[in-house]
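#random but structural
TW: two for the price of one
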Amino acid sequence: MPRLATPGDFPIATLPCEGGGHIAYRRRDGIEPGLMFLGGFRSDMSGTKATALDDFAAATGRAYTRFDYRGHGASSGRFEELALGDWIADGLEVLDRVAEGPQILIGSSMGAWVALHLALLRPGRMAGLVTMAAAPDFTEELIWARLDEGQRERMRREGRIERPSAYAPEPDILTLRLIEDGRSHLLLGRPIALPCPARLLHGTADADVPWIFSLRLLDRLQSADARLTLIKDGDHRLSEPPQIEAMLAAVAELASR
């Protein structure tokens, strides 16, 4: 049994990227299956869900890996120059070079979209999937589809637009590359051959990503064991204590297998 380290005592390390730059991550050793957290759009590994999972891993002696995509948090790169394919590549690098053994992926919002691609790319490494407010295909359905023609034309002409963010003082920078790259990674239009059990959690009051996205995802998952839990009045963050407890309960259930 590995030592039960205290939460937060693992410093940030960096994973060099081919062509320059780095991915920042934290990893604690522990029992398998390990846990790997994948954050959302413009979030980082210091958020409430990521740190709650670290506390859980510390208390149970379980291995845990969290990281920042390039252009996020402590990793290198400019956010507006990157897109989903880059962030999938980052997750794959961390899965292949940092995390060890079978993994339970925990994906929040955009992180659920990334996690689904990792599961399809590395099916033999998957022990489970937990999603929080899953947002697959959001670039097409929640950004492009909601732009008016004037905004679309400006994006085509200038390559980007800015939109106020509900989660940060700086606006979201939405690029044409983000939209076009997202189109090459869409999932909800076809069956998804998930090689592991899945637990999907979504708030009924999510104003950013409607809970119907998780219902559609559940319908597409070709998994023998997939469940959706709707959390009454839960918003997109799902960071209140009862919601965090629901996430940890789902992780503990899958880990106990």
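TW: number two ↓
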Amino acid sequence: MPAKIIDGKKLASELEASLEPRISALEEKGVKPVLAVVLVGNNPASELYVKKKQEASRRLGIESRKIELPETVPEKELIEEIKKLNSDKKTHGVLVQLPLPPGINTTHVIESILSEKDVDGFTSQNMGKLALGVEELVSCTPKGIVKLIESTGKRFEGARACIVGHGLAVGLPLALMLFNRNCTLSVCDRHTKNLALETCNADILVSCAGVPSLVRGGMIKEGAVVIDVGINRVNGRLCGDVLFEEAMEKAGFITPVPGGVGPMTVACLMENTVIAAEKAAGTERIKTGGDGFED
């Protein structure tokens, strides 16, 4: 039986709808959620991502501010702009659109964002909280992936999960989130000697390597949940890391590209902005995914 397609657009719409009463409650307290996005240079892909974030903000009544800086902006000047946003009490979320131009140290820039305004969940403080099982402001794509998996009814506890790719934006924080949910984890990269051996044993398989058709049908366990994070352009068409047609014959559930992880990433950014605004208003909700001090 062909795999069931996980509709990321539908789930993102449902998540956005769940935020509306929370935004209304904030507005009753005189607080309007504000998201500031810093865009450096004129990377077409980055501009498109920022546009989608602004569209989602408008749908929900979240104020979106875009700070555009030239590609030649010195790192020091960029950080000064971020510090201004940090000190602005009306700004709840600060996001620096990545990648940054060569010559700018991304770590320095990210670390200059106040952790309580870090709606991308990239600062060392928010990553550290995640490692301890405190899920407050969590990286948006991994957060969306967990919600996509949850929608299938798949239990995390005891499930074998394989992540292909361990980058700071997706693979690493996702590994922590799945660890917090008591999955048995395998994290692979280009140094993994037998990738198929790892993927074939996975009840949950997530590929975020950015390599077209890296995961083929024969590498997937029968009935597995397959989440394809890859966004690749081949011959003018978008495709993921997973060879979709082959995977459909083996997986139990699978995300399409596009229409899977992408919409959930944006919706989770909106949720993080609301969380940051709730925290500023003293009504924050903190979710714990586990306790790092227990075996």
